[in-house]
C-alpha cells in the first residue's frame, strides 16, 4: 500500500513532534516558537508486513505549515496550497492540543477541511498533560461537527496511540 497523508493544525500543537514520532527520526523541526516549519516537509514511513500490519506499506507525510486567515498575498498563496494538498492526499490528520475550545485559527482550518471530501482524522494531542474532563470537552466539541472519520487522544511526545493513528490512516489507502 502506498499513499499520502497531510498533517495540519495551528502552530505549536505538535505537528512536527507527531511526524517525528511516526517516522522515528528527527526530520521536521520542533520548537516552542510557532511556525518554524515554513515548508511542507515530507517524510516517508516505510513498513514491512508483520503480524500487526500485514501488508508492505509506504506513507508519505506532508507537514502543512501554519494556516491562518490570509492578510497578505503570500498568506493567501500558502492557504491555497494547503487546500490543494488536502485534495491530493488520501487522508488528512488534523491536530489540536489541550487548549480548551477551538480558537478562530482552528475554526479557519475546519472550514478549509470542510471544502474537501478527503477522509479526516482528528488527533487530540498532549494527552500526557491533559485532564480527562478537558479531553472530553475537546472530543465532544469536534465530534459534533461530524466531519472526522476517527478521533484519537495522542501524546506525540510520549508515543501514546501514535500507532493507532498510523493504522487508521492506512485504512484509507
Ligand atoms: P508544531 O508547530 O505543530 O509543529 O509543533 P511542535 O511539534 O514544534 O511542538 C510544539 C511544542 O509542543 C514543543 O515544545 C513540543 O515539545 C510540544 N509537544 C508536542 N507534542 C507534545 C505532547 O504530546 N505532549 C506534550 N506535553 N508536549 C508536546
Ligand atoms: Mg512544526
TrEMBL record:
Occurrences of domain Era-type G (ranges): 1-173
G3: annotated segments: 63-66
GO molecular function, one term: GTP binding
Compartments, record wording: Cytoplasm; Cell membrane
Main location class: cytoplasm
Annotated stretches, region: G4: 125-128
Record region (G2): 35-39
Region (G5): 154-156
UniProt keyword annotations, A-Z: Cell membrane, Cytoplasm, GTP-binding, Membrane, Nucleotide-binding, Ribosome biogenesis, RNA-binding, rRNA-binding
Segments for region (G1): 9-16
Residues annotated for GTP binding in this entry: 9-16, 63-67, 125-128
GO biological processes: ribosomal small subunit assembly
Subunit structure: Monomer.
Family assignment from sequence similarity: Belongs to the TRAFAC class TrmE-Era-EngA-EngB-Septin-like GTPase superfamily. Era GTPase family.
Protein name: GTPase Era
Organism of this sequence: Lentihominibacter hominis
Shown residues in whole-protein numbering: 2 to 174 of 299
Amino acid at each position: 500500500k502506498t499513499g499520502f497523508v497531510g498533517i495540519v493544525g495551528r502552530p505549536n500543537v505538535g505537528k512536527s513532534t507527531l511526524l517525528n514520532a511516526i517516522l522515528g527520526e528527527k526530520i521536521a523541526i520542533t520548537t516552542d516558537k510557532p511556525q518554524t516549519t515554513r515548508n511542507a516537509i515530507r517524510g516517508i514511513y516505510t513498513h514491512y508486513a508483520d503480524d500487526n500490519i500485514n501488508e508492505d506499506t509506504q506513507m508519505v507525510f506532508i507537514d502543512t505549515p501554519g494556516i491562518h486567515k490570509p492578510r497578505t498575498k503570500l498568506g493567501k498563496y500558502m492557504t491555497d496550497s494547503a487546500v490543494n494538498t488536502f485534495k491530493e492526499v488520501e487522508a488528512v490528520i488534523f491536530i489540536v492540543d489541550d487548549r480548551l475550545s477551538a480558537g478562530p485559527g482552528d475554526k479557519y482550518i475546519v472550514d478549509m477541511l470542510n471544502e474537501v471530501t478527503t477522509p479526516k482524522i482528528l488527533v487530540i494531542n498532549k494527552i500526557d498533560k491533559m485532564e480527562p474532563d478537558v479531553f472530553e470537552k475537546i472530543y465532544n466539541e469536534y465530534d459534533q461537527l461530524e466531519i472526522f472519520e476517527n478521533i484519537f487522544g495522542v501524546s506525540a511526545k510520549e508515543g501514546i496511540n501514535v500507532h493507532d493513528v498510523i493504522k487508521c490512516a492506512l485504512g484509507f489507502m
